[in-house]
Automatic annotation (TrEMBL):
The lineage of its organism: Bacteria, Bacillati, Actinomycetota, Actinomycetes, Pseudonocardiales. Gene3D superfamilies: Tetracycline Repressor, domain 2. It holds the Pfam family TetR_N. The keyword Transcription regulation applies. PROSITE patterns: HTH_TETR_1, HTH_TETR_2. PANTHER family: HTH-TYPE TRANSCRIPTIONAL REGULATOR BETI, HTH-TYPE TRANSCRIPTIONAL REGULATOR RUTR. SUPFAM superfamilies: Homeodomain-like (SSF46689). This is Transcriptional regulator, TetR family.
């Protein structure tokens, strides 16, 4: 029997998620068992089920945590440099994040690695993210940071088509490692900038003024992802 470690509930949950993330990258979702995750985390199987009732809920939390990390990084970038809120800068950063295998798998719909989780989404989170992007483009359009001849839904649709096209194309490109193709990142940035953004360079004072409102939008999505992680866990809680 695996010896239990004297960890807090939250610390134990993090250890389980770390173990699950490592194993899914090594073997893929279909092959990994709950027993293997529990053993790698140094907890008993029953203890794991105190945190997540099902294998699916556990690995959904792994992916949500990865998304949450990406949102945190986005917010931090905008706080350091408000120009990071521009669509082309965000798109390049999202592409560069695919150097992380889980992010790459999520963005390319890698069913070999993620199994059914690659196509299974929480519709409430999808709707929330779409609403966030609607508000994001409305904010940028209000301040002339994107092309105002297009409506907000048109801006959102163009952004989705350009970025998802680049992400999905990665599925068919041979890769020997997880290094980002910087030439492709530049092409993506140019495509988004030319399609969506205003021709004149943005005013730095304007970017600083808009940044807090953009961050507020992303923090809303962050809170929903954090709540979804908590909601996927079992009601039983022990210290």
């Amino acid at each position: 029997m695996v010896a239990e470690q004297p960890l807090t509930y939250e610390a134990r949950a993090r250890r389980i998620l770390d173990a699950a993330a490592e194993l899914v990258l090594r073997w893929g979702y279909r092959k990994v068992t709950v027993d293997e995750v529990a053993s790698a985390a140094g907890v008993g199987k029953g203890t794991l089920y105190l945190h997540w009732r099902t294998k699916e809920a556990l690995f959904t939390s792994v992916l949500l945590r990865e998304s949450l990390s990406g949102i945190d990084e986005l917010i931090a970038r905008i706080e350091r440099d408000p120009a990071e809120l521009l669509p082309h800068r965000m798109a390049v950063a999202a592409y560069q994040a695919m150097s992380r295998p889980l992010v790459r798998a999520m963005n390319t719909g890698d069913t070999e690695l993620l199994g059914k989780l690659a196509t299974q989404t929480d519709l409430s989170l999808v709707t929330l993210k779409e609403r966030m992007y609607h508000d994001y483009f409305a904010l940028l359009r209000e301040h002339g940071l994107v092309r105002t001849e297009f409506t907000v839904p048109e801006l959102f649709y163009m952004h989705y088509c350009v970025t998802s096209g680049f992400f999905l194309a990665e599925r068919y490109r041979p890769r020997d490692n997880d290094q980002v193709d910087h030439a492709t990142a530049r092409l993506l940035g140019a495509g988004v900038r030319n399609a969506l953004e205003a021709e004149r360079p943005p005013d730095e004072d304007l970017l600083r003024a808009v940044a807090p409102r953009a961050i507020e939008l992303f923090q809303g999505v962050r809170a929903s992802h954090a709540a979804a992680i908590s909601g996927s866990r079992s009601a039983t809680r022990t210290s």
